[in-house]
Amino acid sequence: MKHLLKRAFFCLSAFLCLTSWSPAHSADSEAEPDKMGSGPVVIHSNKLEADDKAKTITFWGDVTAKRDDFAIDCREMVVYLRKKSLQTQEEGKASPRIDRIVATGDVKIVRSAGGTATAQKAVYYQEEEKIVLTGEPIVKQGNDFVAGDRITLFIAEDRSVVDSPQNGKVKAVIFPKEETGK
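Below the sequence we write its predicted structure tokens.
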């Protein structure tokens, strides 16, 4: 169990990828990409349980995970570790041990560079490098926002997909940007 707790901070650093979503192309898209912070992830919750047999680490009760470039608030966060460590064929090093991270209950993700995402559930899949938001998800950048039944953020591809199979419609509100200096 002690070994599992040591890995908790490594595992939760996977949420660093949350800092790179882009729900809508803004006027700032030509700007230099966000530089990801390098500070530690600090997690506060009312309770933590590490289950080595189930390969899970669960935080619940007013969960807050913060780093210099993002913050995540939710009621519960569960880190699911892979059952077996996979080996890379070329280098023989163990790959990251995270399978997925699930945040539930009034999830709010805030980037220090701007932008928020809210939902009732956010699932980060490490291998696919994607985040799936469900439960009235909304992703905002300034006044612009997108909403639907499910928002999938493909981090490595810098793209997002908004689905609304239940209601049949997605909603995007994009305000015109003023041109600055010539």
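Residues 2-12 form the longest helix (11 residues).
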